[in-house]
Amino acid sequence: MSSKAVLTGCDLNYLPGAVAMLGSVARHHPEVERFCIVPEAEKTQAEAALGGLAKVITPPRRIPGVIDRLQIAHGKVFASDLSYFEVVAWVDTDIVFCRPAPAIWDVRPGRAVAVRCPDTNRVPHNLPTELRPRFAQLYPVLSAQPGFNGGLFAIRPKDWPDLTSDLHRVLIQMQCENHPVYFDQPLLNVMFGDRVDLLDPTYNWTELYDDPPSARQVRVVHFASKPKPWMTGYPRHEPGYWFWVRHGLAVTDPFRLAAVRARILARTPRRLLGRLWRKYGRPSPVNKG
After folding, report:
1. Residue 278 has what pLDDT?
2. Which of 157, 215, 270, 286 has the most CB within a 10 Å radius?
3. Is residue 220 part of a domain?
4. Taking the model in full, what pTM does it have?
């Protein structure tokens, strides 16, 4: 058995993403064992969709302090349960690999590997507003830092034996058990603390609504906003859609890829003008005070 594994999790709404992500891992890292955690009631459908791409598993237990609707969304804490692997990476289902990314599994003992968030974001940026003051009080240093993106991380399970309990501990500290909103990223930053080695952004590229860097530079792309590329309403004229077609759907037909690029290029002037207007052209709000 491989010493490396990848774990993801989803419900049926995100299953197309899981198929694409796990397929991309299989292409670029066939040596890595693949797992997908799904709700018990959806296991049969998930197995049919994934085929041999991954072993489909169900949550081994309930995560304390998390409402039922968000149990699967927090399934990443079960990465520490795969203790028979040396290194386990959690990868969200809205991520695809464009080429090999071995550094993800290059985890030093006692550490974790992740990718830094954009410098414009701070760890509490996706916390519900009412929780930010307490977060700042409890974790003042973290509150001023960009932190890492919660969609991709890797650990040595023996060094993090119970992420489930770690998550529950932070929920108690934050006084937000059973909160109805999903905000795992700041919680993970608290759990891992300063024991994180950060990879460069090409290992978790999220800037998909601007012209991306050379495809030779990007290893992993993350469709972090909504809708996702398999969902109705995703802007197929944006540069990021090419990554989904080429690396998510694994399209190699040069004519189809050229058609995708042509659609993107045709909208480029309009897209750039729209961004310039949003950034510089809108009138300043009138102060009515």
Report:
1. 55
2. 157
3. no
4. 0.90
User: Residue 97 pairs with which residues in a beta bridge?
Assistant: 220
> Do residues 96 and 244 make contact, with C-beta atoms less than 8 angstroms apart?
yes
Residue 39 has pLDDT above 90, yes or no: yes
Which of 94, 88, 98 is CA-nearest to residue 156?
88
What domain range includes position 253? 232-281
Average pLDDT value for residue range 60-84:
97
| Residue 212 forms part of a structural domain | no
How many structural domains are present in the chain? 2
- 110 φ/ψ sector (left φ>0, alpha ψ -120 to 50, else beta): left
How far lies 282's CA from each of 70, 278, 279, in Å? 38, 6, 7
- Same-domain pairing of 148 and 256: no
Q: Which two tokens stand for residue 100?
A: 């090999």
Assess contact for 59 and 37: CB atoms under 8 A. yes
Contact 96, 241 (CB under 8 A): no
Structure tokens at 142: 């973290």
**What are the DSSP calls for the chain, one per residue?**
--SEEEEEE--GGGHHHHHHHHHHHHHH-TTSEEEEE--GGGHHHHHHHHTTS-EEE--SSPPTTS-GGGTGGGGGGGGGG-TTSSEEEEE-TTEEESS--GGGG---TT-EEEEEPPTT--GGGGS-GGGHHHHHHH-HHHHTS--EEEEEEEE-GGGSTTHHHHHHHHHHHHT-TT-SS--HHHHHHHHHTT-EEEEPGGGSB--TTS----TTT-SEEE--SSS-TTSTT--TTSTHHHHIIIIIS----HHHHHHHHHHHHHHHHHHHHHHHIIIIISPPPP---
